[in-house]
């Protein structure tokens, strides 16, 4: 299945499971109704920022939009081979993300990112129905990451832990692509 088809079917399934109309999802996410419709039909390759807004409005992580829905009544596999891992390129920045985690149910997700030099991606604060924590482990290159009021420059081997309840931006100030692993953990929201 093409990555845009995967995102389209996943977005539609999540929206329908939550019994949200296109208008309701548009109002929750701030993404236009027509844009959501194009994405759900696989006719538009949404940017990472748009997908993050939609994921937040649906109460899931961005990584969840790259997971295939349940296709069989049997338990999902605890193994995802490299050839089965969904790979997506952000049309705005050119960053490439690979969904590493297997389909087995887990509160943790792993994503590999290759981020081009000179590019930047910013995510708005998204209210979710759960707490999402992430750790970024830089494998190659250099990245500038800001979360809320904090700003950090990561170099090879550095690891940063942040919560996804704030404005977050990623930028590669280097001259070579940066490669990093993102570990995401989703916990129930506790008041």
What does this protein look like?
The chain is an alpha+beta fold. It contains 4 helices and 10 strands. Strands 1-2-3-10-5-8 form a 6-stranded antiparallel sheet, with no helix packed on it. A 4-stranded antiparallel sheet has the order 4-9-6-7. β1 and β2 (96-99) form a beta hairpin. The mean pLDDT is 91.
What attributes characterize this protein structure?
32% strand, four-stranded antiparallel beta sheet, 10 strands, 191 residues, alpha+beta, six-stranded antiparallel beta sheet
Radius of gyration: 16 Å
Overall average residue pLDDT: 91
> What composes the largest sheet?
6 strands, antiparallel
Strand content: 25-35%
Count of beta strands: 10
The parts where pLDDT drops under 50 for at least 5 residues are none
Instruction: Report strand order across the widest sheet.
Output: 1-2-3-10-5-8
End-to-end Cα distance: 40 Å
Instruction: Output the structural class.
Output: alpha+beta
- Total helices: the number is 4
Q: What is the molecular shape?
A: globular
Along the chain, the helix and strand elements come as HHHHEEEEEEEEEE
| Relative helix content | 10-25%
